[in-house]
Design a protein that fits this description.
It is built from 7 helices and 9 strands. It has a single domain (about 1-215), classed as 3-Layer(aba) Sandwich (Rossmann fold). The strands form 2 sheets. The chain has a 5-stranded parallel sheet, sandwiched between helices. A 4-stranded antiparallel sheet has the order 2-1-4-5, with helices on one face. Helix 5 (about 145-160) runs parallel beside helix 6. It has about 220 residues and is of the alpha/beta class. It has helices spanning about 45-55, 75-85, 100-105, 115-130, 145-160, 175-190, 205; strands at about 1-15, 20-30, 35-40, 60-65, 70, 85-90, 165-170, 195-200, 210-215. It starts with a strand and ends with a strand.
Length: about 220
Amino acid sequence: MALIELQGINKSFGTKDKKVSVLENLSLKVEEGEMVAIMGKSGAGKTTLLNIIAAIDYPDSGTYLYDGKEVKTRNTSQGIKFRKDRIGLIVQHFALINDFKVYDNVELGLWETNVKGSARKKRVMEVLESLGIADLKDKYPNVLSGGEKQRVAIGRAIANNHKLLLADEPTGSLDSDTEQDILNILKDLNSKGMTIVMVTHDEDVANVCDRTIFLDKH
């Protein structure tokens, strides 16, 4: 069954006189359990597509189905609730809070959830241990390497154990060895049933996915 289905999605930016079309009549499906790469030249709409799936942005027209139900979010608060309940998100450049320790950054993934007290602590520690960063739990982001920061960002994204993980250039700022470590983590998450959709410009990253969706620049 398709976890994500987009039907005739259109999205443009700008004013009426200077409107730029980014996505035109886009339709696609991502099956539950798939690992999918999204590729295309700069300006092709890769991040826009990911943002629509994450309900950070909204299509001008078309239909978005998540797990068989239409997604009708049209404002920030609705989008936040949708992501909190359904989606893990890894954004570019880690987006960690520098004043928070590693533990606290991962715990943010459980913000406003029903996971409280000892259950919350247990879940955060499980995530830290699964990513090999439990020994960094009391460190601040400014002393971490790029690979360690990305592991923390992944930890925050998977803390709530949702079906879907979205990632925008998850290896874009990493060296080749660290890139492989992060890809191994993502492949392991996928092998355990998590659906993953990632934007990438790197063919080596795309090659580890089940398939690649190419977007053309209009």
